Structure formats: structure tokens, C-alpha cells
Amino acid sequence: MIYISTYLSPLGNILLAADDIGLTGLWFEGQKYFANTLPDKRIVQETKILTEAKKWLDIYFSGEDPTFTPPLHPSGSAFRQAVWQILLQIPYGQTITYGEIARRVAEMQQLSHMSAQAVGGAVGHNKVSIIIPCHRVVGANGSLIGYAGGIDKKIALLELEHADMSRLFIPGKGTAL
Fold it and tell me: What would you report as the CA-atom Rg of the chain, rounded to the nearest whole angstrom?
């Protein structure tokens, strides 16, 4: 069974979903792919996992790096799971490029090369945003691209983490942040 709950964040409502194992989804209301993996049968009910995820979000939105990760259980292919595991290793307040993730995945799978575009697809379909920090992934030249929640939220999350924004920019605007 899937249980859902809403979290009121400073950046808007967030829908949380969990099964008995862990968090299966965390989406900003209205974002791209919003709740697209939720089954029709779900119950609005607070659970231990959802409460723990909300505690994590409370700490995070207070400007601190949470010292724990709630149980996670996102569904996805082995490739997507590998990419999401790399996302979990990105330190708070830091960024990584799609290309660097591709290099790491290729290394893990003993391949000579991995497509940064394939990694971008896996990052873009991350079902547990913020906690699996896809907002910390940037283009090779520091461009802020590819956040399902919207570039404005990506910027706000990186600013909340006090990330170095001096070399990051929004494509088409031509200016650093």
C-alpha cells in the first residue's frame, strides 16, 4: 500500500509518498512528472516513514544539513538506481556535472564511456527530489539545467545550502548568478 501526505515547504507544497519500506516519492506540487508513479490506490495517512521524511525536510529547510536519511524506496531500472546512488553521495552545498556522474557510472559498470544525456534522463526522473539531491547536478559549463521542480526552485535549494553560485548560470540569460 502507498501512503501519502503533504508537506508545506517555504518553496510550496510537497507531496510525499511511501510504502512500508521507504519513501517512494517526493514532488513539488505541479512539477514535471508530478506524482506520475503513484498508483490509483493510495491512502492519505501519516506513517513513521512519512513523519521521518518531514523531520528531514524541517531540518533541511531550516538551513542545516540533516545528519540522517529517511528510508528510501524509489522504483526504477538498475541504471537509474545507480545514478540515484551517486546523487546521494553529492555533499550538501556542492554541485556535480552530468558528465562526472556519467564517468562514475561508466567506472562502476566497467564501461569505457557513458552518455551524459542518459544520466540526465535518470536524474530527471528522480522520484525523491531534494532528499536524493538532483538539484545539485549542473551542466558541464555550470549551467543550471534540468530540474523537474523548475529552475527557480533549483536556485533556491542551492542558495539554501550556501552553494558557490559564482560559476553557475541560467542558459539563455548569459549571466552568472
Answer: 16
Q: Return the axis-axis angle of helices 116-124 and 78-88, rounded to nearest 10°.
A: 80
Can you state the angle between helices 98-108 and 78-88, rounded to 10 degrees?
A: 120
Q: Is 134 a catalytic residue?
A: yes
| Chain position carrying cell 541560467 | 170
| Catalytic residue (choose from 105, 128, 134, 148) | 134
The tens digit of pLDDT for each residue in 88-121 reads 999 999 999 999 999 999 998 888 888 889 999 9
Which residue, among 123, 60, 64, 129, has the nearest Cα to 96 in the 3D structure? 123
pTM more than 0.70:
yes
CA distances in angstroms from 142 to 8, 34, 70, 139, 148, listed in the order given: 30, 26, 30, 5, 18
CB 140 within 8 A of CB 98: yes
